[in-house]
Amino acid sequence: MATTRTTAPEFHRSTAIPSLELRRSCRENTCYRPHTHDVLSIGLIDEGSSVLTGPLTGPVQLAPGDVVVIPPGHVHSCNPEAGRWRYQMTHLDPAWADDLVRATSGAAGVRVLRSPSVYTQVTNVNDAIAADRPAAELERERRGLADVFRHAEQEESMTVPTMPAPTDGHLAAAQRLQPVLHRLRYDDTTPALDDLAELVGLSRYQLIRAVKQVTGLSPVAWRQNARILEARRMLRSGAAIADTASMLGFTDQSHFHRVFQAHVATTPGSYRG
Question: What SMART domains does this protein map onto (predicted)?
């Protein structure tokens, strides 16, 4: 078995702006299974090559200087192609980043910007988060980021389209599946697929296809992803790891650790800090 060399990730959270979080990591192995974020997220490739994948497109090769813009709810994974891969990922507070969401929303969905000005300004935002600067300084960097995003959106040569935004039909199907997704998220035990299918008048196999078409994930994978998103919120707020695992219905802490590691590429303890 090949030896895996990694560097422990750094997590920085702003005390001035709720839910503003920065991760800086260096990896040499495949570390992420397909997952989503529940907020606008911006990734920077600092060093090495990696591959961005998702359910609605082929793989996209990433290089140093690329900026990956990921709207909430879009399934993706990004893993190193070969050798050392160093990257940053910023998760933005929804209220604070409202104009950034507008500046980056469009038909392309998840996409890669190849713009030195965007890369530099996202780096400035990240440095401000890491230094835990006051709200006024963060606000100045946010305005600068919105400006460079708008400029980059006007220059199509700087944008590599990847995953498209949902269509009206997709949104209608998502609405129909809400009872299923609610049960998957909140039932203490994993609901039987036949029971879920009956909720929305589908067969078991129609349900599996429908959930994957709407979410990009199978029902079980979607359930795991939703629970890990909630686990991240709980751990950021200071919840104990054992309490988090229990409240989210994991069979034991070992199971929780395995699933958390597969989605977040670090342990619950390292993430909680």
Answer: HTH_ARAC
